[in-house]
Structure formats: structure tokens, C-alpha cells
Amino acid sequence: MDFYASIIPLSALAANAAAQIAFRRAGSGLLRSIKTGFVFGLAVMAVLHERFPSPTGTLAANTLIYAALSYCYFHFLNLGETARRIRLLRELAERPEGMSKAELLSAYGSREIVTARLGRLIRNGQVSRGEDGRLRIAGAHLLIPARILRKLKVLFLGRGSADIP
Amino acid sequence: MKTLAWGGGLFLLGLAVQTTVWKISLPERQSKALLAIMLAALFAGLAAAQLLPANISAPRTWPELAHAALLGLSLIFSWLITYSAIEADSPSLVILLAIDGKGPEGMPESEVYASADDSVLLKPRIKDLVTDRMARLENGKYTLTNKGRAMAAVFSAQRKILGLGKGG
Predict the structure, then answer these.
(1) Chain A residues whose beta carbon lies within 8 Å of the beta carbon of residue B142
(2) What ipTM was assigned to the predicted interfaces of this complex?
């Protein structure tokens, strides 16, 4: 085995990120740009494996490495977009003299968070708002990971989510 | 196959050690402890592989070791990211599970707003910033540490490159 076996999935990830940024800057939505970047990186990896043939085990390992690195990249983008801790950090970065807890909560309140999250869930077809104004589950793409995370939380932390009654 | 067996196997070993440690006592800084356990399992395992007899298949050359380490590291970071969603309740997932719990009758929107308040969504995250040493609390004011400033700069740059708004 040569070092190129390790370089192939890293090159594919670089291609993924470059394509994602290019598509996003060209006006594509964030989620669509992430999907496009992933497919582009996968295509680059296929071309590189065609150019440098590898045993099946190496190909399987590189596919797994690329999938795992792409998952990390997706979450890096997602952190910047949705993570409360990151948003709080950026609020604090804009105020070097510091902020009290009350100032932080007024700059970034729970109402803003719920409005943004609900809007995203509805736009992405995971939740629907009926004519009666009630919210219902409309898709399973996020519900299945949510249920898995709830089970993992019980396994590792011995408790479920902070439920909304 | 050596890469898959060793990179994947050492990741699973780290996961087993983490599960055992968590059952004994939950660390205060969970992500840091998880990373330390996983990295120790991966690199100690790859070092130990060098001591095995030659008839046992193991990564021994530098390219083989690099490939197995790359697989192990990519799995470790994927798990670390997933674990952060286990550790802290994601508002989207909490909302989704709450609506799911109401079944076909659905959930009034006002109920979501009434229950997901600052004490559930924000106060624990402010406390986390101090626990993770990204911010300090002095004289009733939160200010960023160098670590917090570096993290904020990374994500501000990311949002600028991608042309995104404030987020959150």
C-alpha cells in the first residue's frame, strides 16, 4: 500500500468542500449545496480510484473514510448555522467589554430559536402546520435520527431529552 | 482489509471503554474525556500491533499505519460530533419528538413556545461556555477567553465565506 490510499479520501473531501462553497456562493441553498458537494466529492473519489486501482478492502475503507469526513464537514457547517453555543460565542465576540446573562438572553432569546427551528422543520417537510393551526409530523428524515439519539441518550446519560410536554 | 479491521476495530474498542467509564462515573467535561479515551485506544492499539508476531495481519508500514489511523480518526470525530447532540438537547429534535409524542391530533404551536423557554434552551448553553473555558464570568459579565475568541473567529469566517446571516 502507498500513501495515495490515504490521500484519495482527503482529496475527495477537499473537492466536496470546494464544490459546496462554489454552489453556495452561486446562490444555491445551504442544504442543496451540501448534497451537491457530497456527490461531487464521491465522483472525484471514483475517478481517483479508477486512476490508481486499489484492492477492494482499500476501496471500502476509503468509502467509509470519505463518508465519515463528509459527515464531519456537514456538522461543521450545521454547527455554524444552528448551534446555540456558537451563536452565543459570536454575540460575545461582538461585545469585548462583556455581556450579562440578561443581555445575552435579550440578544438571542428562546422565541427566536423556536421560530427559526420550526420554520426550518416546516420548510424541509418534516413538520406540517394544519388548517387548525396544530403542528404534526410530516416526514421521517429527522424523526428517525431523533429517536435514535433519544435511545443513545438513555444509554450513555441514563435520561431522555428535556421534553416539551 | 487491515485498515478496516484495525481502524474500525480500535474505534469499537474505544467505544467499549467509553461506555464502561460512563457507567462508572459520568465525566464533567464529557467531550474532552471521550476524545482522550478514543485517541488513546487508537494510537495505543496501533503501537501494540507492532509487537504482534509477523503471521498476524496488522498495519506495519507507514502507509498502512497512516490509512488505519485516518479511518480511526474519521470515525472518532464522527462519533464526537454525534455525541455532542446526545449531550446537549437539540431544540429541533426536542420539538420534533414533542410533536411526535402528540400523535395524529398534533400539537398547538403556542405549546411549543410556552415550554421551550430560556431555562431549557439557553441557560444551560451559557453555563457550558464557562465549563468548557470558552467564556469567563467576572463581575456579572461574560467575556470570551482566547479559546472562545478563536472558535468565534472560525465560525464567523465560515459564515462570511458561505454568505450566511446570524444563524442560531
Answers:
(1) 92, 98-101, 104
(2) 0.81
